[in-house]
Design goal:
3-stranded parallel beta sheet; mainly alpha; 3-stranded mixed beta sheet
């Protein structure tokens, strides 16, 4: 009830504005509507991946969508279709598997369960495939700090493009084919370039090559990590 009241209050304020554009309100319902007391809490993806059962994942996602909509909310930041390659990464549990093919199959099933066949259906929610791309492949440590653990999360995925496509990009076409409406660029970098500001990955590959026609949403404050880069570019343009 508390969640529904917050959502309703936010929408009321939005509809009082000049253009009266309603809010698209998102939440991390990543293994059930897990932030809400009394909701069904399912295993994390690493456990669900062990089932190798797309129909089960689809049903779990459908139930999650029902409970999210029961609180008014219409968007979830799921599924996570990362392909973890290093068990020392603290977020390995977010991935279905280290096998790109299995992640692809289960990620597609999750999108279908969350979004159904028609997003105008009041018991469906907008899905968000994440984190694009290479979040599960960051390198342990660095040449400067070989024992640093901090670089595993929000770190640098140091692989050639063929490897990036074969492992980390592999699950995305299936989710896009399933009609996923949003995708979340990742905190991590690819060979030193922040994914959140990488035109080649976000525009050339994702939108042009793969045909994704939804929208992108920053992973929390990841967008702020490219602000300095953008400011430097603007300075050059101004000059």
């Amino acid at each position: 009830e508390a969640w529904t009241n917050v959502y309703d209050d936010c929408q009321k304020h939005a509809l009082k504005t000049r253009l009266k554009i309603p809010l698209l309100y998102g939440i991390d319902g990543v293994h059930g509507h897990n932030n809400v007391i009394g909701a069904v809490v399912f295993p994390h993806n690493v456990g669900l991946g062990c089932t190798r059962n797309p129909e089960l994942i689809k049903e779990i996602s459908r139930i999650t969508a029902l409970e999210i909509r029961a609180t008014g909310i219409n968007w979830t930041f799921a599924p996570c279709i990362t392909v973890p390659q290093d068990e020392r990464w603290g977020r390995t549990y977010e991935g279905f598997s280290e096998d790109p093919k299995l992640v692809s199959e289960l990620g597609q099933a999750a999108v279908e369960g969350l979004q159904g066949t028609d997003l105008s259906n009041p018991v469906t929610v907008l899905a968000c495939a994440k984190h694009y791309v290479g979040d599960g492949g960051t390198t342990y440590g660095s040449a400067q700090k070989p024992n640093s653990k901090s670089l595993l999360d929000q770190g640098d995925t140091r692989v050639d493009e063929a490897t990036l496509r074969r492992i980390h990009l592999y699950p995305y076409p299936a989710s896009i084919a399933a009609g996923v409406g949003s995708i979340m660029p990742s905190y991590n970098s690819w060979n030193g370039s922040k994914c959140s500001g990488n035109k080649y990955l976000l525009t050339d590959v994702l939108k042009t090559e793969l045909g994704f026609d939804g929208f992108l949403i920053s992973d929390y404050n990841a967008i702020d990590q490219i602000t300095k880069l953008v400011a430097n570019v603007n300075t050059i343009v101004d000059k």
